[in-house]
Design brief:
The complex is a heterodimer of chains A (433) and B (249).
Chain A: E1 5-9, E2 20-26, E3 29-36, H1 44-47, H2 53-61, H3 68-82, H4 89-120, H5 134-155, E4 164-165, E5 168-169, H6 175-187, H7 189-201, E6 214-219, E7 230-233, E8 250-253, E9 260-263, E10 269-270, H8 273-280, H9 286-294, H10 307-332, E11 347-355, E12 358-367, E13 370-377, H11 379-398, H12 403-416
Chain B: E1 5-10, H1 16-22, H2 26-34, E2 36-40, E3 51-57, H3 63-75, E4 76-82, H4 84-87, H5 100-108, E5 135-137, H6 144-155, H7 167-173, H8 198-201, H9 218-227, H10 232-243
Parallel strand pairs in B: 1-2, 1-3, 3-4, 4-5
Classes of the chains: A alpha+beta (433), B alpha/beta (249).
């Protein structure tokens, strides 16, 4: 084939943060494929130096608007690990609810507002108002509202939570609020299944592309892991020495560029909903398993476009799990308890949680109550190299398509990863000859 | 009357303020009846070069950002700074305590970033340190109700009102126990209200995200510091999170 193709998407739309796609094909030869991230670096780790441990949570929350609860929880786990603080069972359940709420909010936003327009053949959700898909859109909005209001109830605010503090919570929801939320979650199961059905009706628009890669995420012995767990890999299995997380998440620099990649066992790996599904699908709650079956999703699924489907499955799981967690709180009656007192002043701690886009790590060194060093490993940064390698394998397979179709297929690939580029406290660019 | 054309742009930020607009849920469907959204990269593919109102989220950090914001200013009849990163620099200014080389070294170590334009950063600037800002929507994140009020005011050709009194006023109205009484250092006495004292109401001290009042009641603030045995230095340290400045405040 002697075809010329030029794709230059400067700032991919409907993703969080700034990323570019550059493709240059001359007479059928691929000259250049680049996934670029020109986001302004924000230097969060440096900002934390000298701050009191109580300030680390509110500052790192601001790394990302969409996963501010996840950053808050990774931050608190790291601080509490450093200062030997054990939170109460009640706080533990409340934090699990917070993580469910955020995962639901982020996933439904991605499925409904960012990916669905591609499947329905429009540029944004706005044209869906008044179209035949209006019913699905309104259900998506309703589920988005529910997810946010659950986070509001637990955290005081969904974006940049307030009540999450070192040692527990500055305030807790009332029993009445919990009972009402349980009812609303129960009522949300049907509309969620309706949205899944609407997506299924256009799921044939998701490209059929697979590339074997490694999947990394948290796993736990008795549940589908989000808040607690050990690092796990589809290639190498369990890694339980969490303090040495850098043995798995190896960031490295390529000689001809400033690029920071993350790799473990292969040249790249993937984190996020699909990684969690591939590692832990057996531990999903029953209705979530049904939805996976509906889409024919089976582990190990190597199609990155199916990440969106894994998110739908997780959304259902988060609803089911939240109902169980609220039941557990109601069984023991919720207490207006104060955060656990901190007695230690210095230490080093690591906090690892699963956030919507994958495994997130914060590590702090605290001396005399002040942070002296910090490191954050962000899910999207762990995915950048995998996106690049997917593009390199995908492009030769779709070169017979029109330039416009190639561009859309690549944009859809980036969107499938649900990148959260503002999170990129590190920076990455990919260039090769 | 044709609908005003509205565009959203983001610079160095967490994009949480634009998320607050998505978080208006069903109400966003009403708002888009009143305006014509012509550019909003986070949620739509289409993009237009002309617009009446530009909302800017984020701080300005690099020459390339400075060029881009100046270009946006040229096209916009009204420019609104959206959220703390844009209005006051916010957390992005924490790093201004150190010079640029120091923070680069801390985060990127020995990585070869010299000569790379994406890393060509200067000390963080708020939007009004680069171009003229017509209106401010404060907060980290912005308050959704305030955003709605500002949009409706602008459509009606009115000037949106921003409170000139401290967060303490709203906090008292909410009948909260003062956080100083609980041993916490709250910036409510010097911070611009408009958030309905959301942090103190949820048991956490105010971090000052809506900016320091143009005219804080200095004597009252001194009284509070004295009563709880706190110093001006302690307060300045608390202010670093959102309101870092090299000058004396």
């Amino acid at each position: 084939m002697s075809k010329d193709v030029s794709v230059n998407v400067h700032h991919v739309t409907r993703v969080e943060g700034h990323g570019n796609i550059v493709l240059d094909v001359k007479s059928g030869d691929i000259k250049e494929i680049q996934w670029q991230v020109p986001e302004a670096p924000r230097f969060f780790e440096a900002m934390l130096r000298g701050r009191h441990y109580d300030d680390l949570r509110p500052i790192t929350s601001r790394i990302c608007g969409i996963c501010s609860i996840g950053h808050s929880l990774a931050s608190l786990k790291a601080t509490e690990d450093a200062l030997d603080v054990s939170i109460s069972d009640q706080s533990h359940i409340l934090r699990r609810l917070a993580i469910n709420g955020e995962n639901m909010q982020s996933h439904i936003l991605h499925i409904g507002y960012l990916v669905a327009p591609d499947l329905f053949g429009v540029g944004s959700v706005f044209p869906l108002v008044g179209s035949k898909h209006q019913d699905a859109l309104l259900k998506i909005v309703q589920l988005h509202r529910l997810s946010n209001e659950m986070s509001d109830m637990i955290c005081g605010r969904t974006t940049h939570p307030i009540r999450l503090v070192v040692g527990g919570f500055s305030m807790v929801p009332t029993e009445k609020q919990l009972r009402e939320m349980k009812q609303r979650l129960t009522d949300a199961i049907q509309p969620t299944q309706d949205v899944a059905t609407a997506v299924l009706s256009v799921a044939d628009k998701l490209p059929d592309f697979s590339r074997e890669t490694e999947y990394i995420g948290l796993s736990a012995d008795n549940e589908y892991a989000f808040y607690d767990g050990y690092i796990n890999s589809t290639d190498t299995g369990a890694f339980k020495d969490y303090k040495n997380y850098t043995d798995v998440m190896k960031e490295y620099i390529v000689s001809q560029s400033t690029a920071k990649y993350a790799k473990h066992h292969r040249k790249s790996y993937m984190v996020g909903a699909l990684a969690r599904y591939n590692l832990n699908s057996k531990q999903l709650h029953p209705l979530a398993k049904d939805v996976a079956k509906m889409f024919g999703l089976k582990p190990v699924c190597y199609n990155p476009y199916m990440n969106t489907i894994a998110q739908i499955v997780e959304f259902v799981h988060n609803i089911e799990d939240s109902i169980l967690q609220i039941d557990a709180l109601l069984d023991t009656t919720i207490k207006d308890e104060k955060p656990v007192k901190v007695n230690k002043r210095s230490g080093t701690g690591v906090g690892i949680v699963e956030v919507p886009r994958g495994i997130l790590v914060h590590e702090y060194v605290i001396k005399n109550e002040l942070c002296t060093k910090a490191n954050c490993i962000i899910p999207t940064n762990q995915n950048h190299a995998n996106i690049q390698h997917d593009m390199e394998e995908l492009v030769p397979q779709i070169l017979d398509k029109s330039e416009k179709e190639i561009e859309l297929t690549l944009e859809m690939l980036v969107r499938a990863y649900d990148p959260c580029i503002s999170c990129s406290t590190h920076y990455l660019t990919v260039t090769f000859e | 009357m044709s609908k005003p054309k509205v565009a959203f742009f983001d610079f160095a930020s967490c994009e949480g303020c634009q998320l607050q607009i998505a978080n208006l849920e069903e109400e966003i469907l009403d708002l888009i009846q009143l305006v014509d959204v012509v550019s909003f990269r986070e949620v739509m593919k289409e993009h237009a070069e002309t617009y009446d109102i530009a909302f800017i989220e984020g701080s300005v950090m690099r020459p390339m950002d400075e060029e881009r914001i100046k270009e946006i200013r040229k096209h916009a009849k009204i420019l609104v700074a959206l959220g703390a990163c844009a209005t006051i620099g916010g957390v992005n200014k924490i790093r201004n305590q150190w010079d640029v080389e120091n923070v680069k070294k801390d985060v990127y170590g020995d990585a070869k970033i010299k000569g790379n334009k994406y890393f060509d950063v200067f000390p963080t600037k708020s939007v009004d340190e680069v171009v003229k800002v017509d209106f401010y929507i404060h907060g980290c994140p912005i308050n959704r109700d305030e955003f709605k009020k500002v949009v409706v005011s602008l459509i009606m050709g009115k000037t949106p009102e921003i409170p000139t009194y401290p967060v303490c006023v709203e906090c008292k109205k909410n009948e909260n126990v003062c956080l100083f009484e609980q041993g916490k250092f709250c910036l409510g006495p010097i911070t611009r209200a408009g958030c309905n004292a959301i942090c103190p109401t949820n048991g956490s001290p105010c971090d000052g995200c809506r900016g320091i009042l143009d005219k804080p009641q200095v004597e009252c603030v001194q009284e509070v510091l004295d009563r709880y045995n706190l110093t001006y230095e302690d307060m300045k340290n608390r202010c670093i999170i959102y309101n870092y400045t090299k000058e004396e405040c």
